[in-house]
Amino acid sequence: MVMRWRRLFLISSAAALGLLFSLTVAAQESKTLAPESLPKVLAEGAKVLEKDIAAGKAEAEALQQQIKQAEGSLQNLGAQIATLKASQGAGELQLKQAQEALETFTRREAAVAAKIKQAEDMREQFSKQLSTRTNAFAGLKQEVERLKAAKHPLWKSPKFRSDWERYEQLAKQYKTGATQTLERFDELLRITGEERQSLAGVLAELTDYVETGKKEELLKRRTLGFLWETVKQTWKSLLEMPGRLAQDLSEPRLGPKVAATLRTKWAPLLGLLAVFFLLAWSAVHLRRSLLPKLALWESEVTGLGTKIIFEAGEIIVAHLFALSFVAWLALTEWVLGWWQTAVARILLLGLFVWVGLRLGLRLIQAVFAGQDQKGILPLDDRTARFYCRHFKLLLTYILVLGLFGLGLLERLGLEPDSYQILGLAFGVGLLVWVLYLLRSRHFDDLRTELPGPEWLKRRGFFLTVRVLLLAVLAAIILASLLGFQNLSAYIAQAASLFGLLLVLFWVTWQGVRGALEHALEREKGRVSKKIRQKEVVLRNYFLAIMKVVVAFLVAGALLIILNIWGVDLGFLSWLSLILNWGTNLGPFHLTLLGLGSAALALYLGRWSSRFLRILLEVRFYPRRDWDQSIRYTIANTLHYFIQAVAILMALSLLGISFSDLAIVAGGLGVGIGFGLQNIVNNFFSGLILLFERPIKVGDMLVIDGQWGQVKEIRVRSTIFQTFDRSVLIIPNSDLISSKIVNWTHYGPGINRLTLKVGVSYGSDVRRVTMILDEVCRANPRVVSEPPPQIFFEAYGDSSLNFNIWVFLATPSDRIPATHELNTAIFEAFQEAGIEVPFPQRDLHIKNWPDLSALAPSAGKAEA
To answer: Which residues, 6+ apart, have CB-to-CB distance to 266 below 8 Å?
Structure first.
């Protein structure tokens, strides 16, 4: 009922808000409303306000009811806390009761937090609506006051005045009611906040009490007689368990609950059925598509660990439908609210164990089938049969007796002491079984064939494991004989879980490593076959990914191991304090965690940019018929975008908000205005080169008379390599503002080469034209269409000048074509007897001087 009124209230509020908002927008756009529209606006607005006032009253009543419920809940919580404290003070609070109270209050605290979040969101939304509508009321009132001041005829109408007074009165009522609703929201938030604070306090006390109680229980010493009585009570309880199970399964209220759920929650049921069919369809299609690929990949690998992983993948894919059904059943129980019922949990646990047993047994059979049956491990038939049988029994023991059996007994309400005895028996049985398998005469054959490093296959490693197992068993037996039954049960369960966790950790590690090696191996990897030129990159990424996987696995395993052995994780709070320690730098608070996170964000940005660019190069670009310049533009744009996002994330992790960035940007503007103009100019010029693309990577340019090719377009400069193999580093702004000859702007297509040649005045012009045309057509670099063109250009001072136009396939042919054509023309002219003149001057002397006057006299000569 409350939710229905709330929906009506929000819908009506939205309608009125839209009407008044449109009125305000129209007033802002036209400055004044058309007076003719005011009566209609007032009439429609009054109707909406009447509905909103009625809906607001219903909302206020619903809030008042919630306040009363919250007050009652707070009083009930106070009474429960007082009872707990009284029991604790009298020493009557048992550990099991404290644990149950801790679970109950934890769920209650989560529910209260959700209520507070919902109330805060609704209050914020309601407050925004009230503010917007108040502004709309003010705008409408301003328009009416403007009519009144102008003595408009509409204002003199008694009906309009009556409508305005009624509208104004309704607006005041709405505002008064909305204000009261906000006050009730505040009251509800105050009461629920107090309840949350009380829950936080009692949760902290109960947590300390439970932790202290667990430690005291571990060291509590009991007699052997008590142990015997516990064993007898456990046997008696086990005999009663079938009756309890039958009673839970035949609960008379179970049928009506299911029927009521089918009647009231038919919409979620339809959605769940759609999800089921989708999961089933996906499972069938994935099975058809993945099974052949996994079989093919398994046949290609040689490593035993990788073979085991692919075999496990085939088994999982073959059972996708069963796994999907278990996942769907868990989702159904959670959506329909059946998760807390014992029957639903038992059913789900049983299905999970059944599916896990099917998968595990098939994998064990495939691994330990023996050489004759083409098993994965090359073992003789006798050893293979021994370990296949024992591992199957051990898996059944763990899943059926351990996971399902102990879990079923716990849900059926088995006494804590009896459950502890059974847990002790299960742990001891598991340790003894593993110790037997390690001491078997068949183990030496198995040890040498295990996948993994050499140190794992050494006899000394497993000898150390056997010694540790014997020490754990001795500690369990000794603790039981001394009367510390709780401690012995704790050691047995923790040691069993610890061993299973290590095995799971090792299998996961071998699986991830095998899969990555299969994909990234240099010689046989599926990815490396496609990108041979990236061997160094593949090796680096393989090592990087393996380091990340190892870090996550080790960290997760360490936390779980510490939790298994009951180590207090309070040191994590100290670690948090150390990481959050820092200093203030102006308005910013720099911490070790912030600096480390910022550095990690920058590193991941750089790593992701490089990885994505390589992925584009080897997987995306080969499927597209794009030239090198487009690829370069996309790669650089992606690099700049990822780096910008990484920098923003790093600044955010350092505690720098976007408003602070605006201040920094202003400071940078001043710096740019003084000393960074050239750098910023070159940066934006580089962006223009990348996006407008007047010059692209690979273009052939002529810069200052030097021919060359563009190799890179960087942030600040462009790398230009001449044909002499020298490199010019040119600022991007120079390329934007200067005139550059680009021979490949529209692609490396046909271009024209112009040659000039001169012949002597006595030559046959038609014969010269024919010879030049034949020479040009005979050159393989000259295209036939368009054909070469020969022009008699002019009468020179000492020659008849010809222009030769030839068309080449690519600009890169210009220099060699020039050499070849000039050589061929010279040779053809020599064979035809055509002279290629050179500039010369003839000197004509009109008056020759008397040479005797210039000679020395004879007398002087004799002297």
So the answer is: none
pLDDT in tens, 146-175: 878 877 777 778 888 888 888 888 888 888
Burial 278-287 (b: 16+ CB within 10 A, else e): ebeeebeeee
DSSP H or E run through 721: strand 717-722
**Start-to-end C-alpha separation, the chain:** 149
pLDDT above 70 coverage of the chain, percent: 77
If asked whether residues 743 and 756 sit together in one domain, one would say no
Domain of residue 87, residue span: 2-218
- Tokens describing residue 537: 């990159």
Tokens (6 digits) for 294: 């996994």
Does residue 22 sit in the same domain as residue 168? yes
Among 706, 737, 736, smallest CA distance to 720 is for 706
State the residue for tokens 């906000």. Answer: 182
Instruction: List, for residues 709-768, the tens digit of each pLDDT value.
Output: 888 887 778 888 888 888 888 888 888 777 888 877 777 778 888 999 989 888 888 999
The count of domains in the chain is 5
pTM metric for this prediction: 0.54
Q: Is the dihedral of CA 253, 255, 259, 264 positive or negative?
A: positive
What pLDDT was estimated at residue 498?
Answer: 83
Reported as a single tens digit per residue, the pLDDT across 298-330 is 777 766 767 777 788 888 888 888 888 888 888
What is the Cβ-side half-sphere exposure of residue 302, based on CA atoms within 13 angstroms? 4
Residue 575 DSSP class: H
Residues 394 and 335 in one domain: yes
Query: What is the DSSP-derived secondary structure letter of residue 782?
Result: B
Give CA–CA dist 295/290, Å, rounded. Answer: 9
